[in-house]
Amino acid sequence: MRAESIAQLAQALRARRISSAELTQQSLAAAHVHSHLNALITLDETGALAAAKRADAALTQAASSALTGIPFVHKDIFCTNGIRTTCASRMLENFVPPYDAHVVGQLNDALAVSIGKANMDEFAMGSSNENSFFGPVKNPWDTARVPGGSSGGSAAAVAAGIVTFATGTDTGGSIRQPAAFCGITGLKPTYGRVSRFGMIAYASSLDCGGVLARSAADCAQVLAAIAGHDARDATSVDRPVDDCVAALSTSLKGIRIGVAREYFGAGVEDGVAAATQAALRELEKLGATLIDISLPNAALAIPAYYVIAPAEASSNLSRYDGVRYGHRCAGPKSLEDLYTRSRSEGFGSEVQRRILVGTYALSAGYYDAYYLRAQRARRVIANDFTEAFASVDLIAGPTAPTVAFKLGEKSGDPLAMYSADVNTVAVNLAGLPAISLPAGFVPNESDNGLPVGLQLIAPAFAEARLLNAAHQLQLATDWHTRTPPP
Amino acid sequence: MTDSHPWQAVIGLEIHAQLSTTSKLFSDASTAYGADPNTQISAVDVALPGTLPVPNRAARDKAIRFGLAIGAQIARKSIFARKNYFYPDLSKGYQISQYELPIVGSGKLVVRTDDGRTLEVEIQRAHLEEDAGKSLHDVFHAATGIDFNRAGVPLLEIVSAPVLHSAQDAVAYMRTVHTLVRWLGICDGNMQEGSFRCDANVSVRPLGETKLGTRTEIKNVNSFRFVEKAIEYEIERQIRALENGERLVQETRLYDAAHHHTRPMRSKEDADDYRYFPDPDLPPLMVTDTDIATIRAGLPELPQARRQRYLETLGLSDADAAQLCADKATADYFEAVLTALPGQAKLCANWVLGELAAALNAGGLAIESSRVSAVAFAHLLRRVHDATISGKIAKDVFAAMWTGEGDADAIIETRGLTQISDVGALAAAVDAVLVEFPVQLADYRGGNEKLLQFFVGQIMKRTRGQANPQQLNTLLREKLHS
Q1: Cβ atoms B60, B103 nearer than 8 A
Q2: Nearest-CA neighbor of A276 among A260, A253, A294?
Q3: A8, A52, A410, B204 — which has fewest CB within 10 A?
Q4: Calpha distance A238→A401 (Å, rounded)
């Protein structure tokens, strides 16, 4: 099944060449075969088989959607009614939500089959998936390497062929960077396009639900199911959703692609830069015009992000106090002790680091120098994009400066780790949609090479244009069809 | 500083009025009071992961209603901010409030003090915020329970400028706000249930000094009487301390009604730093000109204006006008009576504030639940006005109406209470009495004029109270002096 697209699977299911039950069995079997990747925190075999049965019933009655019967996984940040949702944290090790996230409800309604919950960096804080209470995820291309983060489990599960697609969230690159590291396609929609209801918050003004899949066409199918207004999220945008699937086949003739100089700056590996340039030349062959552009304030993105995101996180994570649910320390001696030990035991070190940084940035006397300044930088960064989009239709560059790095390589050096997000965080600060898609390989010690990701960025709500360009490139190239060694 | 140096107290109030919406400020859970603990909560109220706040439009509109009533600028764009602190009854670890940009800007309120002065009190701002839950310290052995029913209930925090100078003025202001919020229908004003609460900021300074002294904040006092006593105590305590050469500390104090004193709340180890920042879950709260026009069009005549009208147009006394306008339902009842009996404002006011108020009071009823409708009440008063019955008889008729015996005319008819205004019949009764009591008659004519009331009483007895008092008076005097 792994080589097949959502459209092909949907056709096979509708033609009864295969049943959802069979597909789901295969998916569960693949999950077991690849359990060494540690891509999943929870495997819900019973629920998956029951959902497959419902999907098969709907398929016989022709009451199906494009996703009906197709197995997938949710990042374990999306609340699933009756199924534990951990956010890869000891804090929520045993938390079972009494509701479905909006994204979960939408995919349930589409009768897609969730087989479980994907591993991730704790509370989506990380770029390597090493910050999980449930252990790191391994990159299917080279198990000594990280899959990227924070949606590392989602990316690894798709890359390894366990599922056809996975949900993810992207606060500073958490869909795009693991998609790049794992050789798949990852879409971060416009902020407000996908409801955050039931998506456990890391940094509310940046968090964005999206999808990881094998192709842009598949991403378009899933986006159609999860996008749209939801009154339960006050930041959800009430605006019609473009038909991204229909727009896939549009020609790229005349499209202007801005190549951002700053995205090829110091720290970008030569192999990554070369692969990206090669992919851009393919776009040129398809009729795109490449235009050299500058995003002069790009360097502000990392410092601004690492103030704003921790500031919001420090407040968002205050609810985990050991009082109502979640981890509670044994035998608290006082209220203070209850808070201190529950939180110290329940949160991992990166989460604690960001809570401390964020608390500091919001403190009296520091607020203006950090939080307000970061907000000003955010506006300047957003303005760079607005100006650039006056003369180009898309902006391109490498998704990440490097290919997947080795497990443990950067885990002791937070600043080095944060620089993995150098090309992705600005997009979140500006609230724009962006996609990462496979753009070739950089050779490594194994024979397979390591995947490189090309990032395309579009103006707000131009997901259709983004997916169209990515799809046209994928029609002309085969990087996205390559699979890691079995 | 000498003992004789005069001091000036400076007081500002922060009033928390619970907005009377059916659901909470950011969730669809009910706000009804008195339910079993934790039965009126949603996932949002207990801050389950992934839940998000959705603003309640009705709460916004009620805040605007208040703002318009005090002539304040309504912010077209206001911002919800997070006030971060840890406490077990604060589920999210932050309270959603408004900080830098409140929905209601500065306005003013005219306050009449008990001793007849008029104060114009500046209200600096009013902002929307959510209430916290409630810690239950006495329910479980060696443990504290938490009831989140209140968590997320919408509050309007009304902040006065520090412009009040006595406990009495502070309470007069608080009463005026209390009347206003109920009048506007935005808060039920129930202080026992915590729907209307007050924190008082109190400082003192030498009279003539313009700089404010060190202030203390007295938290959550929930009756007018206690607010007055707490402020009085605090002013005295501060003056005493300063005169003893002590330095005051800025702190939060609790009023202990049982011992009539204030005491510091358990001091926090570090200074409060709430790390306010705009809530990223909530876009700015927008208000359009149309919203404002619609809400303004729905505003009732305000208490101040109505009181003025009662004084100037209806010619009521200051006290009657004030009493009628103490709450809207009473004023509205009065006007309904007056509509049915035009031109008799004084009579209507006397009876609404007298007999009706007494009956309501005795029955523990609000005027909305009066057993006698305004129209029926007006009908009774018409019979007083047209002298069918005397005021005294009318009281009996009212009592009968109250117990459901029927309308005024029916009761007058059945009981045969029609006043005797027929001169012939009345004259016969007077003559009979004068004949019956010759000794008293002689005494009266000898100069003991106090006996007039004796004759009135006898005649009333003979006529079972139905004699028209004015006519009787005239007739009796004529006959006594003839």
Answers
A1: yes
A2: A260
A3: A8
A4: 35
Delimit the domains of chain B by residue range.
Answer: 7-291, 301-415, 423-481
In whole angstroms, give the CA distance from residue B46 to residue B319: 49
Residue B52 at interface with chain A, using a CB cutoff of 8 Å: yes
CATH of the domain at A170: 3.90.1300.10
Q: What distance in Å separates the CA atoms of residue A336 and residue B166, rounded to the nearest whole number?
A: 40
Record: contact B50-A318, CB cut-off 8 A: no
Which ipTM did the prediction report? Answer: 0.96
Residue B383 CB contacts under 8 Å (≥ 6 apart), including other chains? B389, B394, B397, B408, B409, B412
Question: Can you read off the two tokens belonging to residue A386?
Answer: 């607005």
Residue A168 C-alpha, separation from nearest chain B C-alpha, in angstroms: 14
Query: Which residue of B82, B88, B273 is in closest CB contact with A364?
Result: B273
Q: Which domain holds residue A469?
A: 6-257+390-481
Residue A85 in tokens? 């949702």
CATH of domain B423-481: 1.10.10.410
**What residues in B contact A85, CB-CB < 8 Å?**
49-50
Q: How many helices (H) and strands (E) does chain A have?
A: 16, 11
CA–CA distance, B95 with A319 (Å, rounded to integer): 11
Q: How far is Cα B100 from Cα B272, in angstroms, rounded to an integer? A: 17
Cis? peptide before B223, omega within 30° of 0: no
pLDDT of B269 strictly over 60? no
Q: Is residue A368 part of a domain?
A: no
Strands (E), B85-239: 94-98, 107-112, 118-130, 134-140, 143-147, 154-160, 196-206, 216-221
Whether A97 and B50 lie within 8 Å, measured CB to CB: yes
Structure tokens at A296: 């002069």
List pLDDT tens digits, range B54-105: 999 999 999 999 999 999 999 999 999 999 999 999 999 999 999 999 999 9
Q: What is d(CA A193, CA A106) in angstroms, rounded to the nearest whole number?
A: 13
SS3 call for B74: strand
Say what the pLDDT of residue B2 is.
47
Task: Count Cβ atoms below 10 Å from residue A345 Cβ, excluding itself.
Answer: 14
The reply to whether residue A201 touches residue B91, judged by beta carbons under 8 angstroms, is: no
Q: Kindly state the DSSP code that residue A433 receives in the 8-state scheme.
A: -
The DSSP element (H or E) to which A341 belongs, if any, is: helix A335-346
Domain count, chain A: 1
